[in-house]
Amino acid sequence: MDQAVTQVFDLYRERMAREAEQMRNRTPGLTIDDFLLAVGPHTGALLNTLVKDAGAKRILEIGSSYGYSTVWLAEAARATGGKVVSLDVAAKKQAYGREMLEKAGLSAFVEFRTGDALELIPQLEHGIDFVLLDCWKDVYVPCLERFHPKLAPGAVVVADNMIQPANARQDALAYRRAVRGKPDMTSVLLSVGSGIEVSRKAGPLDDGL
Fold this sequence. Notes:
By secondary structure, the protein is an alpha/beta fold. 42% of the residues lie in helices and 21% in strands. The chain has seven helices and seven strands, in the order ααβαβαβαβαβαββ. Strands 3-2-1-4-5-7-6 form a seven-stranded mixed β-sheet, with helices on both faces. β1 (58-62), α3 (68-80) and β2 (83-88) form a beta-alpha-beta unit. The longest helix has 23 residues, at 3-25. The protein is globular and about 55 Å long. The mean pLDDT is 93.
C-alpha cells in the first residue's frame, strides 16, 4: 500500500488506542456509537485480498461506520478498477470516513449512501461482486434476502461479528443458517478477528464439479 493509505491506518490505530483507554476508564458522556469498533487489521487485510484476488468491481459495504473497512475495500477497488457503494444510517460517521478516504487518496473509489440499508439495497443494480455485511446484527438476514438476488455469479460475501460480541451470537447463528440454506451458496466460518462467515455464490469456476 502507498504511504497515504498507510498514514490513514496509523490515524485509525491511534484512535483505537485512545478509545480502548476510554472504554477501560468508562469515560462518561460516550455511547457505543462514539467508538470506532472496526473490523481490525487482520479482517481488513483479508477483505482487501479477497477483493483483489476475485477481481471484484462492484463492491457493497453494508455498515460504513467511521470508514475503517471502507478504506481497505477502496484500496482494493483501486487495484481492480472497481467501486465501493457504502451504506449507513449515520451521516456523521460517513462524513468522518469520507475525510479519511480523501486523506488516503481513495475518495474517487467510494460512493456513500445514507439511509436504512433495507430500503437502499433494493435500489442497487444487479451484478454485485463482493459484499461486506457489518451493520446491526439483527438485520443481517433481512439484508441477505435483499442483496442475494443481486449477486453476480462467483460473488463473495463476508459477514463480520460471527463469534464476538457474545450478545450477538444468536443473530449471527441465524445469519449463518440463512446463508448456508441458499442452494447456490457455499459458506465457511473463520476465526479471523471477531469471526467472519465467508460465503460464495456458485459461478463459472464450479462448472464440471
